[in-house]
Amino acid sequence: MSASLLNQIEYSASHLFAALVLLGSFALIYQRRMVGMFNAFAFQATALAAAAAWEAYVQAAPHLYVTAGLTFVLKAVVIPLALRRIVRKLDIHRSIEVVIGIGPTMLAGIALVVLATLLVLPVMPGVAAIAREELALALAVLLIGLLIMITRRNATSLVIGFMSMENGLILGVVGVAGMPLVVEVSIALAVLVAFIIFGLFLIRIRERFDSLDAHYLESFRGERR
Amino acid sequence: MIAIPTDPIAVILGLPLIAAAALATMPSHRMSSRVNVLAAFATLMACLQLFWHRPEPTDLLFIDDFNVYLVMLTAFVGFTSSIFSAGYIAHEVEIGRLAPLYLRFYSAMFQLLQFSMLLALVANNLGVLWVAVEAATLTTVVMVSLYRTREAIEAAWKYFILASVGISLALFGTILIYLAAQPAIGPGIAAMAWTEIMPRANQMAPELLNLAFVFLLVGYGTKVGLFPLHAWLPDAHSEGPTPISAVLSGLLLNVALYAVVRFKMLLAANGEALSPGPLMIAVGLASLIFAAVMLYRRRDIKRMFAYSSIEHMGIATFAFGMGGPLANFAGLLHMGMHSLTKSAIFFTVGHIAQVKGTQRMDDISGLTVSHPWLGWTFVIAVLAISGLPPFGLFMSEFLLVTSSFARAPALAILLVLGLLLGFAAMVMRVQSLAFGTPQGPTHGDTMRLKLSLIPILVHLGLVLVAGLWLPAPLVAWFQAVALMLG
Q1: Residue A221 falls within a domain, yes or no?
Q2: What domain range includes position A190?
Q3: Is A220 within 8 Å of B154 when comparing Cβ atoms?
């Protein structure tokens, strides 16, 4: 009895953390201001770090603590701080331009969660329920990240959308028991590199065009006249 | 050659890595160009070793009949590109388009790109494959933005965003494959190794494989430049330095396609999963026809050949989608021939853009009159890429068309339509570029055969020989691999 109760607690807590990450995605959609978006992103990263740490405990896989630590330090602390600094230094618009309004984007986000659930849940008969459900949530976070990238114009929110996609990936990786470490470390590294290059780009774009808006980029169709 | 008693794969991967580190510290561009060529040559020599000594597969790396071909091709085109790049860079420095610091960056990145492509090819582990493709993306992003013009930065940014999204989706697909392999093989690193999962493919859950393949096809397909995920490709090709366009088009697209084909093999081996063929046929055909139509309205010469790369990748994807010994044979041959021909074309285009000082096609004409060697090489290269006999691409396209006519006539008609559209566009363009009255500036000696034309002539020579006569052992080997691909 007590063993099954413990199992239930483990199971529910895993769900709780994964759901918090998903909540973070919706918080990201809801932001109208840059700083709010950074906060929401830091919240999501914290939830993700907690989810990873919990999985490390449940699966008795100490290497996942590394993933948790990396996620927390990098994504919950360093990156939001750095982004805030960039925004302040470059004096970028503090508001977020949207392609589609916040309400419809929210609805689209909910639709994506349903889609992810319908896609993932039926296809894994042999897989443990916990991994399956966590993966469904991970896919939802991934898709919402993509949605943010599509529906927000500013380059900075594009970057955040991309990083929240990566959060979904990490959630998926830690939920799968026994996934080799190679992948996790590489993701952390890749995000770091990606961020450095992104930052480089942001600064360069600012230098060249005096704007961080993606629609300036869209005007380019590459054909010289 | 000195027999070094080590793992040949370690040598092949180690050489570019060491060279990259060394090049990053080298201030003089003459020196670094030479080291670059030397390193590429040494890598090629190390690859030759694979013919008589094939190492045992490990958890992370392996060599089999399929990837050894692409490894050779990558090392070879990498070597010829490094020769071309030496001349190209010297000219760019001369006209002051490149600052010394960026140059140091450039040669180091060139070797890093070579390293990550080779790593992706020899990776036995799905995670390593993914990391390598991601690394290749990051290095090319840096290279595309090398000129720091507004267009170059925009192109690199677009490429970066699209490729990163694609790569993220591919990682999700990779996780799903691991999940499918885990029950059959058990947790741990073995469940991500090609050599472990391929023999046990039939024990994996088919539904999971289906879902995974969709993510992998979209993810790696973005890197192949398949329609409708091709948007990054023309910009990245036209704004970066030309040697990089050659490597991007000739090698990196192949590496991504290699990944897609590997996963296709996995699904085919499973038996119960959805057949990946129709999906690949659909995106392949769409890419072919879309690119062929887009060829007509190009003004920039490098962009035009970038669209032609989309077209040819579409053809190869179509071939692997059709499957079966004959179509797979055609697909393999097409990958190799396209790689050699397209890099030769970009080398030529690089020369043309440098002597004319422009990439705008309206400002270029009469090349055969003003620069006979360059002009005629260009004409021959364009004839080769548009699939005329007696060149190798004609062989592979002919094989593909005949084999698909026998099996799916309706698809074959669409294929032929796309091929003809592309062909006509090329012929139309080459006329105005190569013939007529020359216009624009004519730099340098125009009559002499320049040393830097030699890589182009070697590539075209190989493509010509392959079109006329393939050696019997090579044919036998191609057939064996085609059977393996299923």
Answers
A1: no
A2: 2-216
A3: yes
